[in-house]
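Entry type: protein chain
Record version: 2
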Amino acid sequence: MSAYKRRPASEVNIGGILIGDGHPVAVQSMTNTPTMDTAASVAQILRIAEAGADIVRLTAQTPAHSRNLGEIRKGVRAAGCAIPLVADIHFNPAAAFAAAEEVEKVRINPGNFVDPGRTFVKLEYTDEEYAAELQRIRDKFVPFLDLCRTRGVAIRIGVNHGSLSDRIMSRYGDTPAGMVESALEFLRICRDEDFKDVVISIKASNVVVMTETVRLLDRKMAEEGMCYPLHLGVTEAGDGEDARVKSAVGIGSLLADGIGDTIRVSLSEDPECEIPVARAILRHIDARRDNPLDGISDEDISLPEAGEVPQVLGYDRPLDTDAYEYVVAQYPRVIDMAVKGLSQVKGDKPVAALVHYPAEMTPDEVQIAASVDLGYLLLKYPLGAIAIEAGAMPREALSSLALNILQATRKRISKTEYIACPSCGRTLFDLQKTLAEVKAATKALKGLKIGVMGCIVNGPGEMADADYGYVGAGPDRVSLYRGKECVEKNIPAAEALPRLINLIKSDGRWPDEADA
């Protein structure tokens, strides 16, 4: 049975916000304003803080962007806001050094801090050559740690599935093991240098990959005697219910096992919209923890009548209650009750998990709670069906929610899946508007994965998990991808969507009903 007991983690102080060591899970977001626009960035940070964030991150592409973080920080402090600021660095170690002079924390990506951008080239290394590459990382990374130690600045080692280096890819492949090793290479240097103010994140747009990789990292750190705090998030989750479900499934299923010290829900929406979703996930985890299983009995819940259960795994018709062994649970201790029930199932019938949420819960609360609860169960147990009961929601909404949870856990694909970044200061087109247009034009392409990415940092890498990709290449310029292959480069943004549609049609993957 799962139990809410936080994994051990050392304490890290980020500008007065303490994470790890049993402190409350911190909530983060990221600006999408241009970092050189001081006034707009300050105003957005204040809105994010007002929404309830604990930490805010900003992109810094160059040393000049990093230096302007100092001006933004002054503006935020002048407004009476003490929220810590984090610089987000890719490709440019010089920007990381400059940022360490200005903010409370610097995020670096081990996939491109020393290694060049990913080119998908297969490289061959002897053990000696590979060791030389690791020494090259150490030579560049240790002076950065020394500066951060002197300045009292924390760092985040942030691995993204979409930006693993060619070096890691060549030895480990596009795997959880490769993602974990990418983090460990840098963590071992932190340990050797006795640098303790480190947080780790390891993210993917695929929820299954993300949760599997974080759990593997947690085990590997324990084996090597490390206990650094973990930051959780599903990257490029997109927008709307799809993104909220993905995030709640990935983040919530790890928090339910006590893994995670700080979180971000990445939405392709205004960043302040991320905070209520993150807080709702934490409230649900707290409700589960604070309500003991004692006193809640399966006998308190009646089984549904045949034909009354909504959408289930693998079927588009009501569930035949006689064909399944039922595991029944109700809010708030759904996970514990269901796991207890699964341990008691002895028959040969497939198992159906039926969860009940009280009528006083709002649809938004049910959305998050069911995603955490059923996402956890689907990722860890061989369920044959799921069903959700909630008095405040119509059957159609519950069915849609169940299908979204199944799609997030890769148990059943019922519609087009969108991989979309949340936008940041590197994005040079209106990502929210573009994503809405792409979704409207391609929503009938059941089973296809389409990526809409603001820039090249993770774009080509995450395109490897998508069938097609729409990636920002410059101001109002877009490159189109088939998988990880760039097939049209640097075209005008106004022409990109029609060309994407033509590309899909030319591949014979555009069904007739999509034109209806």
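Comment: The longest strand covers residues 485-492.
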